[in-house]
Amino acid sequence: MTKRTCEVRTLGEGETIRLGEAIGECLGPGDVVGLIGDLGAGKTCMAKGLARSLGVSDCYEITSPTFTIINEYPGRMTLRHVDAYRLETSREMIDAGFEDFFDDGGVVVVEWAEKIRDILPGDTLFVNFEYFDESTRIIRISGDESVIGQILEKYRRERE
Questions:
Q1: Are residues 36 and 127 in contact, defined by beta-carbon separation less than 8 angstroms?
Q2: Closest by CA position to 23, among listed 147, 145, 130
Q3: Which helix (H) or strand (E) covers residue 158, if one does?
Q4: Residues 18, 159: contact at Cβ < 8 Å?
Q5: CB neighbours of 38 closer than 8 A, spacing ≥ 6?
Q6: H/E stretch holding 153
Q7: What is the pLDDT of residue 93?
Q8: Which residue from 59, 51, 81 is spatially nearest to 68, judged by alpha carbons?
Q9: What distance in Å separates the CA atoms of residue 19 and residue 139, rounded to the nearest whole number?
Q10: Where do the domains of the chain lie, and which CATH numbers do they carry?
């Protein structure tokens, strides 16, 4: 697998959600997306877009599972939304059964992925968020070269 990193600028929550939708359309069973960025950088907006593209019903409010650690949503593929913000060690995630999340063909999205990076699969798609200004984010996506190409194409088409 050849790795690639691309950079996208989003203007506001709507574009970040649309980028999440484009990413979600390129995911398959067992895929993992690691979200990295400061508080309020757009990680949960990205998770909302992923959920939408995976067929999660609008009746579910996608919020960061900071206190529950894990939220699960049914859809075309099950979405497991993990927030590692409050974890001290990766061991806590292992003890919660994190490795079992990959057995049913769902998708896992992890906010604060840098805190448990050592237990994430090698083919995890990483999305790094950086503030540019109040509404603009610089988003760097790193992963398999072919997947990155698909994401960029889908996002470009959605913006037209």
A1: yes
A2: 147
A3: helix 145-159
A4: yes
A5: 129, 131
A6: helix 145-159
A7: 84
A8: 81
A9: 10
A10: 3-159 (3.40.50.300)
Residue tagged 């984010």 (tokens): 137
pLDDT digits (tens, 9 = 90+) for 87-113: 888 888 888 777 777 667 899 999 999
Q: Is the dihedral of CA 80, 84, 85, 86 positive or negative?
A: positive
Model confidence pTM above 0.85: yes
Residue 122: the pLDDT is 92
Total number of residues shown for the chain: 160
Cα–Cα distance measured from residue 125 to residue 86, given in angstroms and rounded to the nearest whole number:
22
Amino acid at 93: M
**What is the DSSP code (8-state) at residue 61?**
-
The two beta strands, 70-73 and 79-83, are antiparallel
Q: Which two tokens stand for residue 109?
A: 């999205």
Provide, rounded to the nearest whole percent, the portion of the chain with pLDDT above 90. Answer: 77
- Alpha-carbon distance of 41 to 103, in angstroms, equals 30
69 token code pair = 């650690």
**How high does pLDDT run on average in the chain?**
92
Task: For the chain, give percent helix, strand, coil, nearest 5.
Answer: 35, 30, 40
